[in-house]
Write a structure and sequence with these properties.
The complex is a heterodimer of chains A (about 190) and B (about 325). By secondary structure, chain A is mainly beta. Chain A has 1 helix and 16 strands. The radius of gyration of chain A is 22 Å and the shape is elongated. Classes of the chains: A mainly beta (about 190), B alpha+beta (about 325).
Protein backbone atom coordinates (compact mmCIF):
# COMPACT_ATOMS: atom_id res chain seq x y z
CA UNK A 1 0.00 0.00 0.00
CA UNK A 2 0.95 3.61 -0.50
CA UNK A 3 2.28 5.79 2.29
CA UNK A 4 0.37 8.90 3.23
CA UNK A 5 2.01 11.99 4.67
CA UNK A 6 0.20 14.01 7.31
CA UNK A 7 -0.82 16.73 4.85
CA UNK A 8 -2.67 14.09 2.79
CA UNK A 9 -4.77 12.86 5.71
CA UNK A 10 -8.51 13.18 5.30
CA UNK A 11 -11.69 11.83 6.81
CA UNK A 12 -12.27 8.19 5.89
CA UNK A 13 -8.62 7.43 5.05
CA UNK A 14 -7.63 3.91 6.20
CA UNK A 15 -4.12 3.49 7.60
CA UNK A 16 -2.04 0.97 9.52
CA UNK A 17 -1.11 1.93 13.09
CA UNK A 18 0.59 -0.40 15.56
CA UNK A 19 -0.29 -3.34 13.30
CA UNK A 20 -4.02 -2.66 13.10
CA UNK A 21 -6.07 -1.04 10.32
CA UNK A 22 -7.57 2.26 11.47
CA UNK A 23 -10.02 4.70 9.94
CA UNK A 24 -9.68 8.49 10.26
CA UNK A 25 -12.89 9.96 11.66
CA UNK A 26 -11.86 13.60 11.98
CA UNK A 27 -8.75 15.34 10.68
CA UNK A 28 -7.83 18.77 12.00
CA UNK A 29 -5.02 21.02 10.77
CA UNK A 30 -3.36 22.74 13.75
CA UNK A 31 -0.93 25.56 13.05
CA UNK A 32 0.37 27.73 15.87
CA UNK A 33 1.15 31.20 14.43
CA UNK A 34 4.90 30.88 14.06
CA UNK A 35 5.37 27.20 14.81
CA UNK A 36 5.31 24.09 12.72
CA UNK A 37 2.04 22.53 11.67
CA UNK A 38 0.47 19.49 13.32
CA UNK A 39 -2.29 17.23 12.11
CA UNK A 40 -4.60 16.07 14.87
CA UNK A 41 -6.57 12.98 13.97
CA UNK A 42 -9.44 11.22 15.68
CA UNK A 43 -9.16 7.56 14.71
CA UNK A 44 -11.01 4.29 15.08
CA UNK A 45 -9.15 1.00 15.33
CA UNK A 46 -11.16 -1.21 12.96
CA UNK A 47 -10.26 -4.39 14.86
CA UNK A 48 -10.90 -3.32 18.45
CA UNK A 49 -13.31 -0.43 17.79
CA UNK A 50 -11.26 1.86 20.06
CA UNK A 51 -11.57 5.56 19.21
CA UNK A 52 -8.76 7.92 20.20
CA UNK A 53 -6.75 10.96 19.11
CA UNK A 54 -3.23 11.15 17.84
CA UNK A 55 -1.14 14.11 16.67
CA UNK A 56 1.31 14.01 13.76
CA UNK A 57 3.95 16.42 12.50
CA UNK A 58 3.38 17.43 8.90
CA UNK A 59 6.47 15.50 7.72
CA UNK A 60 5.35 12.21 9.31
CA UNK A 61 3.92 9.55 7.07
CA UNK A 62 2.10 6.28 7.66
CA UNK A 63 1.26 3.25 5.60
CA UNK A 64 -2.18 2.96 4.06
CA UNK A 65 -4.38 -0.02 4.95
CA UNK A 66 -5.99 -2.23 2.30
CA UNK A 67 -9.49 -1.90 3.71
CA UNK A 68 -12.69 -1.90 1.65
CA UNK A 69 -16.40 -2.20 2.25
CA UNK A 70 -18.28 -4.60 0.01
CA UNK A 71 -21.94 -5.66 -0.15
CA UNK A 72 -22.44 -9.40 0.24
CA UNK A 73 -25.30 -11.82 0.72
CA UNK A 74 -25.54 -13.69 4.02
CA UNK A 75 -25.65 -17.44 3.33
CA UNK A 76 -25.65 -19.30 6.67
CA UNK A 77 -23.97 -19.73 10.02
CA UNK A 78 -22.41 -23.06 10.96
CA UNK A 79 -22.20 -22.37 14.69
CA UNK A 80 -18.63 -21.12 14.48
CA UNK A 81 -18.38 -19.01 11.33
CA UNK A 82 -20.78 -16.84 9.36
CA UNK A 83 -20.64 -17.31 5.58
CA UNK A 84 -21.19 -14.59 2.98
CA UNK A 85 -21.14 -14.48 -0.82
CA UNK A 86 -20.33 -11.73 -3.27
CA UNK A 87 -23.45 -11.76 -5.54
CA UNK A 88 -21.39 -10.68 -8.58
CA UNK A 89 -18.38 -12.98 -8.38
CA UNK A 90 -20.00 -15.72 -6.24
CA UNK A 91 -16.85 -15.61 -4.15
CA UNK A 92 -17.46 -16.63 -0.54
CA UNK A 93 -15.92 -15.41 2.70
CA UNK A 94 -16.32 -16.64 6.26
CA UNK A 95 -16.33 -14.24 9.22
CA UNK A 96 -15.62 -15.22 12.82
CA UNK A 97 -17.17 -14.02 16.08
CA UNK A 98 -14.70 -11.11 16.38
CA UNK A 99 -15.72 -9.71 13.01
CA UNK A 100 -19.45 -10.35 13.35
CA UNK A 101 -19.84 -9.25 16.98
CA UNK A 102 -23.27 -7.96 17.94
CA UNK A 103 -24.38 -7.91 14.30
CA UNK A 104 -25.00 -11.69 14.51
CA UNK A 105 -28.47 -11.20 15.91
CA UNK A 106 -29.61 -9.23 12.82
CA UNK A 107 -28.27 -11.59 10.13
CA UNK A 108 -31.05 -13.14 8.05
CA UNK A 109 -30.23 -15.48 5.22
CA UNK A 110 -30.19 -13.82 1.78
CA UNK A 111 -30.07 -10.29 3.26
CA UNK A 112 -27.52 -7.85 1.82
CA UNK A 113 -24.82 -7.20 4.42
CA UNK A 114 -21.85 -4.81 4.29
CA UNK A 115 -18.61 -6.67 4.92
CA UNK A 116 -15.43 -4.74 5.72
CA UNK A 117 -12.44 -6.59 4.26
CA UNK A 118 -8.85 -6.02 5.33
CA UNK A 119 -6.34 -7.71 3.00
CA UNK A 120 -9.34 -9.70 1.76
CA UNK A 121 -10.37 -10.93 5.23
CA UNK A 122 -13.59 -9.85 6.95
CA UNK A 123 -12.99 -7.65 10.01
CA UNK A 124 -16.45 -6.11 10.43
CA UNK A 125 -20.01 -6.95 9.46
CA UNK A 126 -22.70 -4.27 9.23
CA UNK A 127 -26.35 -5.27 8.76
CA UNK A 128 -28.81 -3.07 6.83
CA UNK A 129 -30.30 -0.23 8.90
CA UNK A 130 -33.67 -1.99 8.81
CA UNK A 131 -34.38 -5.74 8.81
CA UNK A 132 -37.61 -7.71 8.70
CA UNK A 133 -37.71 -10.66 11.09
CA UNK A 134 -40.36 -13.13 12.27
CA UNK A 135 -41.48 -13.40 15.90
CA UNK A 136 -40.84 -16.95 17.16
CA UNK A 137 -41.75 -16.42 20.79
CA UNK A 138 -43.66 -13.85 22.86
CA UNK A 139 -46.43 -13.73 25.47
CA UNK A 140 -49.95 -14.02 24.02
CA UNK A 141 -51.27 -10.84 22.43
CA UNK A 142 -53.81 -8.74 24.25
CA UNK A 143 -57.00 -8.48 22.20
CA UNK A 144 -58.15 -4.97 21.43
CA UNK A 145 -54.92 -3.32 22.58
CA UNK A 146 -53.83 -1.64 19.38
CA UNK A 147 -53.06 1.76 20.90
CA UNK A 148 -50.15 2.94 23.03
CA UNK A 149 -49.24 1.68 26.39
CA UNK A 150 -47.10 -1.23 27.44
CA UNK A 151 -44.56 -3.39 25.72
CA UNK A 152 -43.22 -6.92 26.12
CA UNK A 153 -40.17 -8.86 24.98
CA UNK A 154 -40.33 -10.88 21.76
CA UNK A 155 -37.78 -13.36 20.44
CA UNK A 156 -37.13 -13.13 16.71
CA UNK A 157 -36.05 -15.80 14.25
CA UNK A 158 -32.40 -14.77 14.53
CA UNK A 159 -32.43 -15.02 18.34
CA UNK A 160 -32.61 -11.26 18.88
CA UNK A 161 -34.91 -10.13 21.69
CA UNK A 162 -36.68 -6.78 21.20
CA UNK A 163 -39.38 -4.81 23.02
CA UNK A 164 -42.62 -4.89 21.01
CA UNK A 165 -46.17 -3.57 21.58
CA UNK A 166 -48.52 -5.87 23.50
CA UNK A 167 -50.64 -6.68 20.43
CA UNK A 168 -47.83 -8.45 18.56
CA UNK A 169 -48.23 -12.21 18.20
CA UNK A 170 -46.06 -15.19 17.31
CA UNK A 171 -45.63 -15.59 13.54
CA UNK A 172 -45.82 -11.89 12.71
CA UNK A 173 -42.99 -10.29 10.71
CA UNK A 174 -41.60 -7.06 12.22
CA UNK A 175 -39.47 -4.22 10.90
CA UNK A 176 -36.55 -3.47 13.26
CA UNK A 177 -34.00 -0.64 13.29
CA UNK A 178 -30.67 -2.48 13.74
CA UNK A 179 -28.82 0.67 14.85
CA UNK A 180 -30.97 1.03 17.95
CA UNK A 181 -32.54 -2.44 18.20
CA UNK A 182 -35.99 -0.80 18.28
CA UNK A 183 -39.26 -2.12 16.87
CA UNK A 184 -40.45 0.12 14.00
CA UNK A 185 -43.65 -1.45 12.68
CA UNK A 186 -45.25 -4.61 11.37
CA UNK A 187 -43.63 -5.48 8.04
CA UNK B 1 -5.50 18.41 -6.29
CA UNK B 2 -9.21 17.79 -6.50
CA UNK B 3 -11.66 20.65 -6.29
CA UNK B 4 -15.37 20.92 -5.73
CA UNK B 5 -17.67 21.29 -8.74
CA UNK B 6 -20.23 23.20 -6.66
CA UNK B 7 -20.81 26.72 -8.01
CA UNK B 8 -22.53 28.25 -4.99
CA UNK B 9 -20.66 30.34 -2.39
CA UNK B 10 -19.59 28.65 0.85
CA UNK B 11 -20.77 31.65 2.92
CA UNK B 12 -24.43 32.61 3.21
CA UNK B 13 -25.48 35.91 1.69
CA UNK B 14 -26.20 37.23 5.20
CA UNK B 15 -22.60 36.44 6.21
CA UNK B 16 -21.25 38.16 3.10
CA UNK B 17 -23.24 41.30 3.94
CA UNK B 18 -21.77 41.17 7.46
CA UNK B 19 -18.35 40.80 5.89
CA UNK B 20 -18.80 43.91 3.77
CA UNK B 21 -19.89 45.92 6.79
CA UNK B 22 -16.90 44.65 8.82
CA UNK B 23 -14.44 45.76 6.12
CA UNK B 24 -16.16 49.14 5.98
CA UNK B 25 -16.05 49.69 9.73
CA UNK B 26 -12.36 48.67 9.91
CA UNK B 27 -11.55 51.38 7.36
CA UNK B 28 -13.66 53.86 9.32
CA UNK B 29 -11.77 52.92 12.54
CA UNK B 30 -8.42 53.87 11.01
CA UNK B 31 -9.80 56.92 9.21
CA UNK B 32 -10.86 58.33 12.56
CA UNK B 33 -7.38 57.74 13.97
CA UNK B 34 -5.51 59.28 11.02
CA UNK B 35 -3.89 55.99 10.08
CA UNK B 36 -3.36 55.85 6.33
CA UNK B 37 -4.28 52.89 4.13
CA UNK B 38 -1.54 51.41 1.93
CA UNK B 39 -1.68 48.55 -0.55
CA UNK B 40 1.76 47.08 -1.09
CA UNK B 41 2.63 44.40 -3.63
CA UNK B 42 1.28 40.87 -3.36
CA UNK B 43 4.05 39.47 -5.60
CA UNK B 44 7.59 39.85 -4.36
CA UNK B 45 11.04 38.79 -5.54
CA UNK B 46 11.82 37.79 -1.95
CA UNK B 47 9.99 35.50 0.44
CA UNK B 48 9.23 35.32 4.14
CA UNK B 49 12.05 33.77 6.18
CA UNK B 50 9.99 32.00 8.92
CA UNK B 51 10.81 28.30 8.55
CA UNK B 52 7.23 27.24 9.28
CA UNK B 53 5.49 29.63 6.92
CA UNK B 54 5.62 28.36 3.36
CA UNK B 55 5.19 30.84 0.51
CA UNK B 56 3.17 30.18 -2.61
CA UNK B 57 5.05 30.94 -5.79
CA UNK B 58 4.04 32.28 -9.18
CA UNK B 59 6.01 32.50 -12.41
CA UNK B 60 6.63 35.82 -14.12
CA UNK B 61 7.44 35.69 -17.85
CA UNK B 62 8.52 38.56 -20.13
CA UNK B 63 6.52 36.79 -22.87
CA UNK B 64 4.41 33.61 -22.78
CA UNK B 65 7.10 31.25 -24.10
CA UNK B 66 9.99 32.65 -22.10
CA UNK B 67 11.40 30.85 -19.11
CA UNK B 68 9.59 31.91 -15.96
CA UNK B 69 11.09 33.73 -13.04
CA UNK B 70 9.84 32.67 -9.62
CA UNK B 71 8.04 35.32 -7.57
CA UNK B 72 6.49 34.80 -4.15
CA UNK B 73 3.06 35.75 -2.90
CA UNK B 74 3.13 37.71 0.35
CA UNK B 75 2.42 35.76 3.54
CA UNK B 76 2.04 39.11 5.31
CA UNK B 77 2.75 42.68 4.11
CA UNK B 78 5.21 43.16 7.00
CA UNK B 79 8.46 43.61 5.05
CA UNK B 80 6.95 46.01 2.52
CA UNK B 81 5.14 48.05 5.16
CA UNK B 82 8.34 48.41 7.20
CA UNK B 83 10.12 49.69 4.11
CA UNK B 84 7.39 52.34 3.86
CA UNK B 85 7.81 53.17 7.56
CA UNK B 86 11.56 53.59 7.08
CA UNK B 87 10.83 55.84 4.08
CA UNK B 88 8.87 58.06 6.47
CA UNK B 89 5.20 57.43 5.66
CA UNK B 90 4.01 57.43 9.29
CA UNK B 91 1.11 55.42 10.78
CA UNK B 92 -0.20 52.98 8.17
CA UNK B 93 -2.57 50.05 7.81
CA UNK B 94 -3.21 47.47 5.12
CA UNK B 95 -6.30 45.36 4.55
CA UNK B 96 -5.82 42.68 1.93
CA UNK B 97 -5.12 39.13 0.88
CA UNK B 98 -2.16 37.10 2.05
CA UNK B 99 -1.23 33.54 1.05
CA UNK B 100 0.18 30.59 2.98
CA UNK B 101 0.97 27.30 1.34
CA UNK B 102 -0.43 24.08 2.76
CA UNK B 103 -2.70 25.71 5.30
CA UNK B 104 -6.18 24.28 4.88
CA UNK B 105 -8.56 23.39 7.70
CA UNK B 106 -11.56 24.54 9.66
CA UNK B 107 -9.62 27.63 10.79
CA UNK B 108 -7.30 27.98 7.79
CA UNK B 109 -7.65 28.90 4.15
CA UNK B 110 -4.49 29.21 2.00
CA UNK B 111 -5.63 32.69 0.94
CA UNK B 112 -7.05 34.89 3.67
CA UNK B 113 -7.70 38.51 4.55
CA UNK B 114 -5.22 40.15 6.87
CA UNK B 115 -5.41 43.49 8.59
CA UNK B 116 -1.95 44.76 9.50
CA UNK B 117 -1.08 48.12 11.03
CA UNK B 118 1.87 50.02 12.50
CA UNK B 119 1.83 52.80 15.08
CA UNK B 120 4.82 55.04 15.66
CA UNK B 121 5.82 55.52 19.29
CA UNK B 122 3.36 52.89 20.55
CA UNK B 123 4.49 50.44 23.22
CA UNK B 124 3.27 46.86 23.00
CA UNK B 125 0.59 47.64 25.63
CA UNK B 126 -0.52 50.78 23.75
CA UNK B 127 -1.06 48.59 20.72
CA UNK B 128 -2.95 45.98 22.75
CA UNK B 129 -5.25 48.82 23.87
CA UNK B 130 -5.92 49.73 20.25
CA UNK B 131 -6.53 46.12 19.21
CA UNK B 132 -8.95 45.85 22.12
CA UNK B 133 -10.83 48.93 20.88
CA UNK B 134 -11.07 47.60 17.34
CA UNK B 135 -12.24 44.13 18.34
CA UNK B 136 -14.66 45.50 20.97
CA UNK B 137 -16.39 47.59 18.30
CA UNK B 138 -17.23 44.32 16.54
CA UNK B 139 -17.83 42.07 19.55
CA UNK B 140 -18.81 44.33 22.45
CA UNK B 141 -19.42 41.93 25.35
CA UNK B 142 -16.01 40.24 25.61
CA UNK B 143 -14.12 39.73 28.87
CA UNK B 144 -10.53 40.94 28.35
CA UNK B 145 -7.38 39.65 29.98
CA UNK B 146 -3.58 40.02 29.57
CA UNK B 147 -1.24 37.29 30.77
CA UNK B 148 2.40 36.47 30.13
CA UNK B 149 3.34 33.28 28.30
CA UNK B 150 5.17 32.03 31.38
CA UNK B 151 2.31 32.74 33.81
CA UNK B 152 -0.17 31.07 31.46
CA UNK B 153 1.89 27.86 31.26
CA UNK B 154 2.32 27.84 35.05
CA UNK B 155 -1.40 28.43 35.57
CA UNK B 156 -2.74 25.80 33.17
CA UNK B 157 0.01 23.15 33.20
CA UNK B 158 2.26 23.93 36.16
CA UNK B 159 5.21 23.96 33.75
CA UNK B 160 7.70 26.83 33.44
CA UNK B 161 8.26 27.21 29.68
CA UNK B 162 11.57 29.02 30.25
CA UNK B 163 13.09 26.61 32.78
CA UNK B 164 11.65 23.16 31.88
CA UNK B 165 14.06 20.79 30.11
CA UNK B 166 13.30 19.27 26.73
CA UNK B 167 12.39 15.95 28.35
CA UNK B 168 10.13 17.64 30.91
CA UNK B 169 8.27 19.35 28.06
CA UNK B 170 7.98 16.05 26.18
CA UNK B 171 6.66 14.33 29.31
CA UNK B 172 4.10 17.08 29.85
CA UNK B 173 2.89 16.56 26.26
CA UNK B 174 2.82 12.79 26.34
CA UNK B 175 0.85 12.62 29.56
CA UNK B 176 -2.25 13.66 27.61
CA UNK B 177 -1.36 13.87 23.91
CA UNK B 178 -0.51 10.83 21.81
CA UNK B 179 2.42 12.03 19.69
CA UNK B 180 4.99 9.43 18.67
CA UNK B 181 7.39 11.69 16.78
CA UNK B 182 10.74 12.86 18.08
CA UNK B 183 11.88 16.47 17.95
CA UNK B 184 14.88 18.24 19.48
CA UNK B 185 13.33 21.68 19.18
CA UNK B 186 11.82 22.91 22.48
CA UNK B 187 9.47 25.17 20.55
CA UNK B 188 7.81 22.17 18.89
CA UNK B 189 6.78 20.85 22.31
CA UNK B 190 5.84 24.29 23.60
CA UNK B 191 3.66 24.78 20.52
CA UNK B 192 2.08 21.37 21.03
CA UNK B 193 1.22 22.21 24.65
CA UNK B 194 -0.05 25.64 23.63
CA UNK B 195 -2.24 24.43 20.76
CA UNK B 196 -3.58 21.22 22.30
CA UNK B 197 -3.86 21.94 26.02
CA UNK B 198 -3.79 25.69 26.66
CA UNK B 199 -5.72 27.23 23.76
CA UNK B 200 -8.87 25.20 24.50
CA UNK B 201 -8.80 26.64 28.06
CA UNK B 202 -8.71 30.28 26.92
CA UNK B 203 -12.15 31.84 27.20
CA UNK B 204 -12.99 35.39 26.25
CA UNK B 205 -10.35 37.68 24.77
CA UNK B 206 -6.86 36.87 26.05
CA UNK B 207 -3.64 38.68 25.15
CA UNK B 208 -0.70 36.34 25.72
CA UNK B 209 2.56 38.31 25.82
CA UNK B 210 6.28 38.02 26.62
CA UNK B 211 7.09 34.98 24.48
CA UNK B 212 10.38 33.06 24.70
CA UNK B 213 13.11 34.74 22.61
CA UNK B 214 13.17 31.70 20.31
CA UNK B 215 9.64 32.70 19.27
CA UNK B 216 10.41 36.42 18.94
CA UNK B 217 10.09 36.52 15.13
CA UNK B 218 10.53 40.28 14.46
CA UNK B 219 9.95 41.55 18.00
CA UNK B 220 12.43 43.23 20.39
CA UNK B 221 13.87 41.06 23.14
CA UNK B 222 14.61 42.30 26.68
CA UNK B 223 15.05 40.83 30.18
CA UNK B 224 11.86 40.61 32.28
CA UNK B 225 11.70 41.15 36.11
CA UNK B 226 12.33 37.41 36.73
CA UNK B 227 15.58 37.61 34.75
CA UNK B 228 14.32 35.65 31.72
CA UNK B 229 14.92 37.13 28.30
CA UNK B 230 11.47 37.65 26.75
CA UNK B 231 10.28 38.97 23.43
CA UNK B 232 7.93 41.93 23.20
CA UNK B 233 5.35 39.99 21.26
CA UNK B 234 1.69 39.29 21.92
CA UNK B 235 -0.90 36.99 20.49
CA UNK B 236 -4.61 37.63 20.92
CA UNK B 237 -6.94 34.66 21.34
CA UNK B 238 -10.73 34.88 21.11
CA UNK B 239 -12.18 31.86 22.90
CA UNK B 240 -9.06 29.88 22.01
CA UNK B 241 -8.95 31.02 18.39
CA UNK B 242 -5.67 32.72 17.47
CA UNK B 243 -6.67 36.10 16.07
CA UNK B 244 -3.74 38.55 16.07
CA UNK B 245 0.03 38.66 16.45
CA UNK B 246 1.77 41.87 17.48
CA UNK B 247 5.33 43.06 18.09
CA UNK B 248 7.19 45.96 19.56
CA UNK B 249 9.18 46.03 16.37
CA UNK B 250 12.83 45.17 16.09
CA UNK B 251 14.70 48.21 14.73
CA UNK B 252 18.30 47.00 15.00
CA UNK B 253 19.57 46.12 11.48
CA UNK B 254 22.38 43.76 12.63
CA UNK B 255 19.95 41.80 14.79
CA UNK B 256 17.47 41.75 11.89
CA UNK B 257 20.14 40.43 9.52
CA UNK B 258 21.19 37.71 11.95
CA UNK B 259 17.58 36.57 12.50
CA UNK B 260 17.06 36.28 8.73
CA UNK B 261 20.23 34.19 8.47
CA UNK B 262 19.23 32.04 11.45
CA UNK B 263 15.88 31.32 9.81
CA UNK B 264 17.63 30.36 6.58
CA UNK B 265 19.98 28.02 8.48
CA UNK B 266 17.05 26.37 10.24
CA UNK B 267 15.36 25.94 6.86
CA UNK B 268 18.49 24.25 5.53
CA UNK B 269 18.72 21.98 8.59
CA UNK B 270 15.08 20.91 8.17
CA UNK B 271 15.36 20.41 4.42
CA UNK B 272 12.90 23.24 3.74
CA UNK B 273 13.03 25.41 0.59
CA UNK B 274 15.67 28.18 0.50
CA UNK B 275 14.15 31.32 -0.99
CA UNK B 276 15.62 34.79 -1.51
CA UNK B 277 15.78 36.65 1.82
CA UNK B 278 14.43 40.19 2.01
CA UNK B 279 17.78 41.98 2.51
CA UNK B 280 16.12 45.28 1.57
CA UNK B 281 14.43 45.13 4.98
CA UNK B 282 17.88 45.20 6.62
CA UNK B 283 18.83 48.18 4.44
CA UNK B 284 15.61 49.94 5.46
CA UNK B 285 16.49 49.37 9.13
CA UNK B 286 20.00 50.69 8.47
CA UNK B 287 18.41 53.83 7.10
CA UNK B 288 16.25 53.92 10.25
CA UNK B 289 12.94 52.36 11.24
CA UNK B 290 11.07 54.63 13.67
CA UNK B 291 10.29 53.04 17.06
CA UNK B 292 6.88 51.44 16.56
CA UNK B 293 4.58 48.56 17.32
CA UNK B 294 2.71 46.59 14.70
CA UNK B 295 0.11 43.85 14.54
CA UNK B 296 -1.45 41.50 12.01
CA UNK B 297 -5.04 40.40 12.57
CA UNK B 298 -7.00 37.67 10.77
CA UNK B 299 -10.13 39.39 9.50
CA UNK B 300 -11.90 36.17 8.50
CA UNK B 301 -11.40 34.79 12.00
CA UNK B 302 -12.70 37.99 13.59
CA UNK B 303 -15.83 37.52 11.49
CA UNK B 304 -16.03 33.83 12.51
CA UNK B 305 -16.15 34.86 16.17
CA UNK B 306 -18.54 37.73 15.52
CA UNK B 307 -20.94 35.41 13.69
CA UNK B 308 -20.23 32.47 16.04
CA UNK B 309 -19.33 30.02 13.27
CA UNK B 310 -16.65 27.33 13.43
CA UNK B 311 -15.52 27.11 9.82
CA UNK B 312 -13.63 29.78 7.90
CA UNK B 313 -15.39 28.74 4.67
CA UNK B 314 -18.63 30.07 6.18
CA UNK B 315 -17.30 33.65 6.19
CA UNK B 316 -15.46 33.86 2.84
CA UNK B 317 -17.29 33.88 -0.52
CA UNK B 318 -15.64 30.72 -1.85
CA UNK B 319 -13.67 28.45 0.48
CA UNK B 320 -10.54 26.80 -0.91
CA UNK B 321 -12.22 23.74 -2.46
CA UNK B 322 -14.65 25.94 -4.39
CA UNK B 323 -12.09 28.61 -5.27
Amino acid sequence: MANYSANQFKNGLKVMLDGDPCSMLDVEFVKPGKGQAFTRVKMRNLITGRVWERTFKSNESIEGADVMDTDMEYLYGDGEMWHFMDPNTFEQVAADQNAVGDSAKWLKEQDKITITLWNGNPIAVTPPNFVELEVVDTDPGLKGDTAQGGSKPATLSTGAIVRVPLFIEIGEVLRIDTRTGDYVSRA
Amino acid sequence: MTYSVEWQPTASLAHLRQRASLLKSIRHFFDQRDVMEVDTQILSHCAVSDPFIDSLSAEYRPHPNAEGQLLHLQTSPEYAMKRLLAAGLGDIYQLGKVFRNGEVGRRHNPEFTMLEWYRLGFSLHDLMDEVESLVSEQIPDLAWRRVSYRDLFLEVLGVDPFQASLSELQDACRQTIEAEFEDEDRDTWLNLLMSHLIEPQLSGAVFVHSYPPSQAALACVHPDPTGNMVSERFELYLDGLELANGYHELVNPQEQASRLSADQQQRAALGLPQRPLERRLVKALEHGLPRCSGVALGVDRLLMRKLKVESIAEVIPFGFERA
